[in-house]
């Protein structure tokens, strides 16, 4: 028998560990149970979790008949499918116990919370318990390709090689400032690790939202886009300060939408209003890992793939290393920027702009209520970054100034920054990258540590609403 | 019990999963590869195509055991469960092959269009052959995921 050339392998005796790809939930599983009087019940499961070498765990929020059957007859039969080969396996199970806390419960709860977060059902869609089953037997069900070949197990991702991890860590260590650092991180994940796309989001000053500071591999960089804590894969990773890995986003979304419709149709105690979720079409797999420094959440690093079950625990571990290195570097960069004494500009400043208000030019409209800023009618940014831009443009128009220091702007009360961990450098980088992304006639150039220059091409019309 | 709308739903390429029970009370999960409503009236009966290689399901239905069939739309996850008793394996019919082909075509197309799985991969999933059986349906339940799942349809 010739081994397959695609990285898969032929298994003489099947074990739970062999079926890792089946436990990612990319294809719904099936469970059959029976009551004491011999009446069967058969239904779908969103996912089967491997617990250890002998056990699996199941969760289902709408399992009433299955639960009743198991109380009378603890046996179950489960079908799972390998999403890479579509080979099907049957597990013969016996119910062992129910857990309502602990690591297995938490793993299953993360799945249910993910489903809930996709359709804004966090208040009503919660895991009640994790049922643990002992696996008595595993068999492959025959199909045309495997009938004579025996079980062929698909390979899961081995994760990026250590050399790539070392190279990315080196690049991050070489980054001279926050702007270079965040760009190097997301680019490295794509170029060195081979991921399709990567995003870095940082936590805002209030600790309630994440904002995109850099991304790579997408049609639009999306700098400044926001994700609420608890929202989707990224929001959950931030809220829990734990990695979240999914390989079946398409299935999850379909399932979540169906449950939402059922709630709506029954007018049951209702889920909250729809919460927008970052929605990239055709994404099947995603990992989001928290970036922590000194025990505090700084942001989230996320990668995506259009392939199902594209990532493994090895990818998750590698990303955790990168996120930790990145978090330490971000914290160090912020500290340096805060402590840096303003240096003289590296180059002569250009001629100040005319102080008199022009009658034609680029129109910048600023909204006091939330700092939303529009350039020629197109949304640019909001929040601290929007207020920072407005303050800079005010100085520029009133005094003709172009040179600024981080330290003086940090003290500007109009920015409404918190006294502690003000995130100023991140917001400045966000504003800079957002202006660059939009190819705006306004630019921010770093001139030396703690200093930057506002570059304005042409006259501005400033409007405050 | 199986009105026109239900019959249409059951016959249009839904994912079909089957639960049976052995003489020792052990449940067994399997799949079906086509369903035809033979009689939708007071004693509704369906003709179900089972996998020729799923010997335990075939044994259980041959012994006239209890059967559960869950049909689920791949596109919407709208789902219902039929419960009843096997009337035994049926004689192969000239229409069985056409039913299997029609079912596989609809089922696989729905999977491909909604989940993105390639038809070449799905082709390895189809059974070698089909064995028809007849099931008398006694009860029908809502199975769509959500708070109403498990409710009996009267």
Q: Which keywords apply here?
A:
heterodimer; A: 465 residues; alpha+beta; Pnp Oxidase, Chain A; Beta-Lactamase; Arc Repressor Mutant, subunit A; seven-stranded antiparallel beta sheet; six-stranded antiparallel beta sheet; 10 helices; 22 strands; 31% helix; B: 154 residues; six-stranded antiparallel β-barrel; 7 strands; 27% helix; globular
Mean pLDDT of chain A: 82
CATH topology of chain B: Pnp Oxidase, Chain A
* Tally of individual domains of chain A: 3
Q: What integer value in Å does the Rg of chain A equal?
A: 27 Å
| Sequence of strands across the biggest β-sheet of chain B | 1-2-3-6-5-4
- Superfamily (CATH H level) name of chain B: Electron Transport, Fmn-binding Protein, Chain A
- By DSSP, the count of extended strands of chain B is 7
The portion of residues assigned to helices of chain B is 25-40%
Structural class of chain A: alpha+beta
Strand content of chain A: 25-35%
> Looking at this structure, what is the CATH superfamily of the largest domain in chain A?
Electron Transport, Fmn-binding Protein, Chain A
Work out the helix count of chain B.
4
Mean pLDDT of chain B: 91
Q: What's the total helix number of chain A? A: 10
Question: Explain this structure to me?
Answer:
The complex is a heterodimer of chains A (465) and B (154). In chain A, 31% of the residues lie in helices and 27% in strands. With 465 residues, chain A is of the alpha+beta class. Chain A has 3 domains: 9-153, Pnp Oxidase, Chain A; 162-247 and 284-339, 2-Layer Sandwich (Beta-Lactamase); 362-464, Orthogonal Bundle (Arc Repressor Mutant, subunit A), CATH 1.10.10. In chain A, a hairpin with a 5-residue loop joins β10 and β11 (209-216). In chain A, α3 (162-174) runs antiparallel to α4. Residues 1-8, 268-279 and 344-355 of chain A have low confidence and may be disordered. Chain B is of the alpha+beta class. Chain B has a single domain, classed as Electron Transport, Fmn-binding Protein, Chain A (Pnp Oxidase, Chain A, Roll), CATH 2.30.110.10. Helix content of chain B is 27%, strand content 39%. Chain B has 4 helices and 7 strands, in the order αβββαββααββ. Chain B has helices spanning 4-10, 55-62, 94-115, 119-123; strands at residues 15-21, 27-39, 45-51, 66-72, 79-89, 130-142, 152-153.
